[in-house]
Amino acid sequence: MVSEASEDIATLAKGGRTNVAGFVLRLMARIPFLFIAGRLYGPDLVGRFAIAVVVVELAALVSTLGLKRGLAQALATTERPHVHVVWDAMVLGGILSLSASAVLWAFPEVMYPNSYVAGLDRYLPLIILAIAWSDISLAALAYRLNVRATVTARAVVEPWTISIAAWVFSFFTTRDGLVLAYVASMLAALTASLIPFIRSYGLPHGWSPHLRALFALARRNAPLAGADALEWGTRNVDRFILGLMFAPKIVGIYYMAQQVASLPQKLKTSFDPILGPVITRNLASDNRTAIAEQVRQVAFWIIAAQGGLALMGSIPGEAVMGIVGPQFVAGTAALAFLLTAEVLASTGAVCESALVYMARHRNLMISAAMLSFQVVLSFALIFAMRALGWPVEWQAAGPAVALMLSLALTSVIKARVLGRLLRAPVSPLRWPLLWAALAAIAMGGAFTMLPHEYEWAQVVIGIPAIAATYLFILWRRAFGPADRALFSKMPRADEATLPNVGAMTR
């Protein structure tokens, strides 16, 4: 008879398999946008867009009040019709979204701290409501295990819309093209979210907002909202700091490196809808050993995958950034640090999936302290390099270094805290990870030594060779039966799941 723990690992493996297809879909959609934005708009316009979107998406995140993770708990514990609870959440998110839009409309300089406000800049905050409602709708669908809707909205509709729209609008206005493309993609994603949501839950017949329930929901979700905001801040405050310290061109170069580096991040968040229910079920039965095993297993899968992607992106870094556009090659160093940061963040990110249920406030305090450390270190590195007379491009890599160090320290602290709570180790590290990385570096290094005219070979041949070397050693030396179960059956594209994490720019 298969044990409950084994069944949980099998569930996680199945979820991990289905997310591979979704991840590939998102990857295929991301590349055209990077190419179009880099080649047709240039670093200056990309930089202004990047800073503005940071502020807008923070406002949207706050407006959801942690409901992307907290709505499932609310639905699981209520006796009211689920459609009524979700529409309570929609009202709450709507009120906060419109409030945030009004503030940013009145003070658009917040979105453009180092440049002028003109054209359609002021209108961008009006899209906050669409982002928040899309997130809440997909969270409700995730509760009912509707994975196809999330894939459709986040991996197909949203990224392909922004790519196509950015190309189309470039013929009419490069000044506002990216803003219009972003608005179009968010409206398209909202449509793709609401249609399956209404089909699944129906219309809220007989519903009226429960103000007391709304405020209680907001209160319960405050720690989750704080954790989401801090995690988001950790990943995006570097862009805002650069917007304060440098011209938009520098921000645009960094942003493109950040977008390439953010691809591995989606692998972690893709496990959130799967890992959360498994953890809460084992918490209810006080099976802490099982939780530790699940955290170790998922963290290993993620760190192994992110390690491979980091090596594939950073070793031929100049060639990768050159694809986006020759002006963006200056972001190669930032790309390497950002990709390394994703690997180092893996353990802490998975541990947080358990800590948000076991030690919400402690997790929040750790994240807040690490974010403060990251901000202070970012400014310190920039000012230090500026005092030494280092090039601006080097200075701009300072926040990436700060992010890398902050995420590494966060992983160590959260793993120790969770390990003590579970009374079991949670570290996913295995020695073969190091051997596989060293072999891949040797393989990739050989391709980087080719003459410049063969730079194309670094991408076309070198990246697959790096991946093959890395995966071969992992398969032979690091993977056990549970790991190989991850690859036992690949899903169809329409079965793939993706995290409810939103936009191209997150």
Please explain how this structure is put together.
The protein is mostly helical. The chain is built from 20 helices and no strands. The chain folds into 3 domains: 181 residues, no CATH class; 182 residues, no CATH class; 58 residues, no CATH class. α9 packs across α14 and α14 packs parallel to α17. The longest helix has 61 residues. The radius of gyration is 22 Å and the shape is globular. The protein starts with a helix and ends in a 22-residue tail after the last helix. The C terminus is likely disordered.
User: What proportion of the residues is helical, as a percent range?
Assistant: over 70%
Low-confidence stretches: 490-506
Distance between the termini: 43 Å
Structural class: mainly alpha
- Shape, per Cα inertia axes: globular
**Number of structural domains:** 3
Share of β-strand residues? under 5%
Main β-sheet, in a few words? none
Number of helices: 20
* Element order: H for helix, E for strand: HHHHHHHHHHHHHHHHHHHH
Cα-atom radius of gyration: 22 Å
Nearest-integer average pLDDT = 82
**Strand elements, count:** 0
Give structural attributes.
single chain; 506 residues; mainly alpha; 3 domains
Topology:
Layout: H1 4-64, H2 67-76, H3 82-106, H4 128-143, H5 147-169, H6 177-201, H7 211-220, H8 222-245, H9 248-261, H10 265-269, H11 272-284, H12 288-314, H13 317-324, H14 332-358, H15 360-387, H16 392-396, H17 398-422, H18 431-448, H19 455-477, H20 481-484
Helix pairs in contact: 1-3, 1-4, 1-5, 1-8, 1-9, 1-12, 2-3, 2-4, 3-4, 3-7, 4-6, 5-6, 8-15, 8-17, 9-14, 11-12, 11-14, 12-14, 12-17, 12-18, 12-19, 13-14, 14-15, 14-17, 15-17, 18-19
